[in-house]
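Dear support,

I submitted the protein below through the web form. The confirmation email said the job was done, but the results page showed an empty box. After a refresh the structure appeared. I'm attaching both so you can tell me whether what I see now is the final result or a partial one.
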Amino acid sequence: MMENKDFTVVDVRTRAEFMGGNVAGSINIPLQEIVEREEELKALKQPIIFCCASGNRSGQATHYFKQLGYECENGGSWLDVNYNLSK
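What the results page shows now:
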């Protein structure tokens, strides 16, 4: 999915974690806010690549939004997403 470069990266870590380092151009929506901010997500360019610190929280977000019909993927760690985008 990352090959076409036409997607949105959403980082579901806390704001403090996000401020400590993130994927350039990514959007921070902490996991605990993700459901209440669904309208905001709906307006984003899909597919959405969710990331976090290890892939656990982004996996939860991906599972939830896939069930709602969103085109999304678990990118795993934000460091992995950063690396894959740099290739």
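Response: this is the final, complete result; the empty box was a page-load delay. Residues 56-67 form the longest helix (12 residues).
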